[in-house]
Each structure stands twice: as structure tokens, then as C-alpha cells.
Design brief:
Mean pLDDT: 89
Oligomer: single chain
Shape: globular
Radius of gyration: 16 Å
Strand order of the largest sheet: 1-4-11-6-9
Number of helices: 1
Number of domains: 1
Structural class: mainly beta
Distance between the termini: 10 Å
Order of helices and strands: EEEEHEEEEEEE
Largest sheet: 5 strands, antiparallel
Low-confidence stretches: none
CATH class: Mainly Beta
Strand content: over 45%
Length: about 130
Amino acid sequence: MATLTPTLTLASTDVTANETLNLTLTDSLSVLGPCETKRVVVASGSTDVGADNTIFAAGSYTIAYVLLYNTSVATSGEIITIGTTASSGSLAATNMSLIPGEFAFFPWDSSVSLVADASSGSPVLEARIFQAAS
């Protein structure tokens, strides 16, 4: 078993007129194998995102922690949308959209597949998954 220590810091001196934002949250997560890192070229305009752009398949893990990072450096476009698929293979539900350079870290229960679609181009999504210890 290993320990993963995520830390999130939000800081700003001008986000509001009334306060200076300085918030840091840290957690200690117990993780074990399998841990996986992959870089996925996300095709735009896919007619079957479930077949073409599955990032992590349902049931392939139990509870896990996922880090997604849109590595694109495009100045516009190449937005990666993360969601789930309908039976037709189209994007059924959108959970988040990552513009170039954006990332997300979140817990995932593996009850649905995580799939991706791109608004344009073929951006690369870096995906890391850490299996929770329990």
C-alpha cells in the first residue's frame, strides 16, 4: 500500500472586492495497484466515443482516484469533454470540459466508463488512475 497526497491551493488578491483568497486543502489517500498512466489522442467528431475514446472502462477498477490533463497547447479549440456514452455510442452526459492546459483530479467509482471527445483537432489527454486501498 502507498500514500498519495493531493494538495489544492487557491489564491488570489483580486478575485473579489471584499477578501483575499488563500485556501489550501490537503488529503492523504491510501492507494494500491493497479496504478496506470496513459496518453490518449482524443479524436474529434467520433461517431462512437465509447468505442473510439474510452479513457477508463466501467468495472475495470473499484473506487479509484483519477487525474486528467489536457496537454494541448493550442490557443483556441481542442477542448476535451469528459462524460459517459449512450447506447448509440454518442456522448450522453457531460461531466466536465478541459480547455488546453486544464486538469482535474477526482474520485471515481467505476460504475460507468469515462469517455472523451474533442471539439477540434486531436489533443492528447494524459490520464492517471490510482486504485484506492479500500
